[in-house]
């Protein structure tokens, strides 16, 4: 929102240059505001068509004019040819009852309703849409431009955003134009995915602009990273990362860059989710074309692939064309991919097994340091690749328990436990050493779980420590693996890296 006509005109030029189709002019934010002069000047000099809004205080705006005066200004804007005029649903019946020439106007009217506290139940939202449609049928001639229903709520969870998106999708599919948006961080997907629901429009901000509602994304991201103009109802697939919090995730940066580089009709967004089961249930009801999630989702899946089942954890959920979901664990896959690459490039590379498209870990000895979640992931993945695995841990009983669990998860595998000191002394050694503990993590960067004089016995040393960032290959491999699971296509790693560095 801007305070003066000059600021609005300058912002409209910037918005046009940045690729916007429309600008919303919040007349109630202008200081001072002279309707007789400002409305015609704006309509004559704006660089883009506009939505004229004069929001009253009782609907979250700043206008304190008497209602007859306020509504007269909106009619004045329509008579001068504004592309859209926003009229609050609460006064719409009165407004249109007194409107004499609806059949001849070129202006599209928006029937808006805002809830600044919460997202009402779906039944209440559906009833509101029905009331809007009855009002339109009662007040508008058949030949008049079709009004747009605008429903704005406040999201507490991404489920609210999906609810609004689903309602918008169903309403627009029936031929009734609609704008459905949820405010706040949790509501952001409703703005970024508006095109997948056939929404009439969505709202974004300029770099130096002031948002007119919480959660409006930057215009450059809407058009660039999320490719709003390329989204198509019934065709564009949706993937995303789930978390609480989730705004810090670089998943949208990486995956959308890869999707765009391959021309994949899809978009990847961040979902701020506090209740994952409720989110999944809402996704099914809404009809939002959710194709996959980066989420801890083993229990939520219909099936689990062998690695995820063996590890007992998953971080990726993928839906097939029949709506059935499968859980995958790309942590283990990414770690093994990094280790396998190291083996190929080491003195162990070039084996007959590798030439036969088998894992280069087949019959190799992998020593895993650590018996936590990361250790379990690496141990199971290595055992499934055909390696002999030794698990060592400071608390030997935990290594013994994990070894037994891996043997159960991977029948006929060779997995044993050993005390950590036997690895540190060199008594136990192998082809690959995989550290999955936090020893050596920042700020304790000089520490190591195994002495330097022992490391020479290993052809490959893998370290799962991620601060400092020595395991970039692991992070790349995980994202690439998820992308392949989502799309069935190989991602361009350099495109992913470039997008992440650029962000």
Strand content: 15-25%
Weakly predicted, low-confidence segments: 466-471
User: How many beta-strand segments?
Assistant: 17
Q: Give me the Rg, rounded.
A: 29 Å
| Helix-and-strand structural type | alpha/beta
The count of helical stretches stands at 19
Helix content: 40-55%
Main sheet attributes: strand count, strand direction, barrel closure: 6 strands, parallel
Shape verdict: elongated
- Estimate the mean pLDDT confidence: 90
Organism: Prototheca wickerhamii
GO biological process, one term: chorismate biosynthetic process
Pfam families: DHquinase_I, Shikimate_DH, Shikimate_dh_N
Domain Shikimate dehydrogenase substrate binding N-terminal: 241-317
Describe the structure.
The structure is a single chain. With 503 residues, the protein is of the alpha/beta class. α9 packs across α19. It is elongated and about 90 Å long.
């Amino acid at each position: 929102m801007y305070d003066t006509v000059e600021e609005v005109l300058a912002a409209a030029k910037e918005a046009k240059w940045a690729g916007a189709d429309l600008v919303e002019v919040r007349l109630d934010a202008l200081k001072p505001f002279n309707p007789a002069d400002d409305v015609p000047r704006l309509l004559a000099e704006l660089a883009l068509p506009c939505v004229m809004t004069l929001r009253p205080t009782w609907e979250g705006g700043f206008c304190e004019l008497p209602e007859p005066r306020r509504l007269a200004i909106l009619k004045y804007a329509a008579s001068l040819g504004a592309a859209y005029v926003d009229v609050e649903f609460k006064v719409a019946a009165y407004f249109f009852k007194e409107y004499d020439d609806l059949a001849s106007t070129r202006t599209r009217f928006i029937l808006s309703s805002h809830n600044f506290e919460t997202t009402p139940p779906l039944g209440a939202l559906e009833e509101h849409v029905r009331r809007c449609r009855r009002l339109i049928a009662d007040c508008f001639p058949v030949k008049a431009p079709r009004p747009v229903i605008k429903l704005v709520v406040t999201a507490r969870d991404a489920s609210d955003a999906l609810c609004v998106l689903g309602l918008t999708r169903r309403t627009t599919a029936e031929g009734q134009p609609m704008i459905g948006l949820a405010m706040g961080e949790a509501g952001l997907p409703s703005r970024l995915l508006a095109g997948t629901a056939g929404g009439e429009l969505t709202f974004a901000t300029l770099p130096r602009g002031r948002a007119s509602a919480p959660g409006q994304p930057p215009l450059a991201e809407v058009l660039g990273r999320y490719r709003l103009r390329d989204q198509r109802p019934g065709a564009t697939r949706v993937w995303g990362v789930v978390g609480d919090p989730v705004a810090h995730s670089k998943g949208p940066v990486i995956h959308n860059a890869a999707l765009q580089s391959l021309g994949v009709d899809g978009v990847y967004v961040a979902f701020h989710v506090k209740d994952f089961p409720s989110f999944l249930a809402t996704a099914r009801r809404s009809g939002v074309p959710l194709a996959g999630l980066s989420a801890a989702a083993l229990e939520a899946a219909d099936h689990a692939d062998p690695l995820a089942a063996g590890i007992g954890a998953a971080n990726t959920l993928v839906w097939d064309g029949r709506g059935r979901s499968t859980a995958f664990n790309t942590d283990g896959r990414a770690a093994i991919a990094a280790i396998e690459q190291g083996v190929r490039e080491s003195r162990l590379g070039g084996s007959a097994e590798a030439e036969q498209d088998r894992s280069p870990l087949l019959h190799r000895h992998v020593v895993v340091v650590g018996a936590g979640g990361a250790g379990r992931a690496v141990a199971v993945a290595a055992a499934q690749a055909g390696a002999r695995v030794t698990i060592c841990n400071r608390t030997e009983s935990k290594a013994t328990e994990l070894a037994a669990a891996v043997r159960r998860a991977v029948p006929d595998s060779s997995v044993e436990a050993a005390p950590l000191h036997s690895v540190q002394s060199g008594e136990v050694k192998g082809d690959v050493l995989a550290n999955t503990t936090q020893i050596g993590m920042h700020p304790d960067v000089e520490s190591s779980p195994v002495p330097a004089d022992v490391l020479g016995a290993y052809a490959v040393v893998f370290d799962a420590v991620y601060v400092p960032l020595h395991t970039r290959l692991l992070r790349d491999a995980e994202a690439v693996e998820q992308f392949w699971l989502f799309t069935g296509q190989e991602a361009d790693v350099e495109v992913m890296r470039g997008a992440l560095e650029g962000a």
